[in-house]
Amino acid sequence: MLIKGHELFHQEASASYQASLEACPWQHIDDTGTRVNGDNHYCHLVDSPLATHYRTLPSKSRLSVLKVLLNQESLIFRPNDETLELLQKLKVAQKSIQVIKTLPREQDLEQAFIQDWLNSHLPNLKHSQQQAVLSSLAIAAYHAQTTFPIVELLICDNAPQFKLITSELALCWVHEGRHYKKLEPTIPYHQRLHKQFLRSFWSFYHRLNAYRQQPNEEEAALLEHQFERLFSIQTGYDALDKLIARTYCRKTQLLMALRHPEIELHNNPAELGVRHRVRKRKISFGPRVADGVQAWDTFMSLLATTRKLGINFHQYLADRISGFKKILPLPDLIHAQAQLLDLDSSWQMA
Question: What's this model's pTM, rounded to 2 decimal places?
Answer without folding.
Answer: 0.95
